[in-house]
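Throughout our pipeline, every protein is held as a single compact record rather than as scattered files. Such a record has a labelled line for the sequence and another for the backbone structure tokens. This encoding replaces a full spatial description with a residue-level series of whole-number codes. For reference, a complete record is included directly beneath this paragraph.
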Amino acid sequence: MPSFTHRVPRRRGTRRIHMFHCLVAKWINRFIHMSLYFAVFLISFVVLTAELFVVYLLQKQFIKTKPRKQFRNSLEQVVRYEKELQRYIKCKKNTYEIGLMYERYIGYLLEKDSYSVEYHGATKGMRDLGIDLIAKDKKETLIIQTKYWGKTKVITEQPIEHLAKITDTYKEMYPQENKVKAVFFATINLSQEAEDMAVLLEVKFIKMKFDNSYPMIKCNISSKGEKIFHLPTDDYYDKIKIDHDKGEFYAKTVAEAVGKGFRRAFRHKPKPAA
């Protein structure tokens, strides 16, 4: 029997259109993948460039980050520094250390009265020539010697005479200084001969007891504006001059110094426990 199956005639160009659509879809798929790869590459390049730029800025000190500062001012460090201070105050001291504490106390009182104090004895050591402190203001210069002696002792005329000679030598060396005066601080009295010698040689004597509870932490502002505090055990403690007009001061506790924005000096050597 004859077949009645009807075949639909194939249109011309259909195969070509299909191939064209497949080719376009293939290229679009490749473009999308390349775009994703390019985007990932671009993001990685930007991140890497930013990291290198930050490193460059840090090396050039355009960004000043001080993790050491944050670490030193942490609560743990504040407690440690406070213990170090109390250990220094309470530990047993030899004659030199006791005398040094008294010098610092007198310097504190003078700086409190707006004098600029040079801790000559502490910084010069054996080359101090008998001058413990040099205190200056706009009107006068004080050449100071301090003595922290036992209650049973009495100061004789020799230290007074020695201080007067040193003061005269200082006047000859620095004639431009204003009104150079000799001042003798001590925790005990002068003998009668020493009192007469002090009046004759114009040496002012001041009896001053030592107060161990005075604030000992020096809060100093550097030339760069950095707020730094120094404990009595720190390297540069005796080289630091406190100027109250600049906002510098003595703090009683480490927490007080840190609370006002000061950090510990980077160069310090803790005093070992006695």
Summary: The helical segments are 14-59, 67-72, 75-90, 95-112, 120-124, 157-173, 192-200, 254-259.
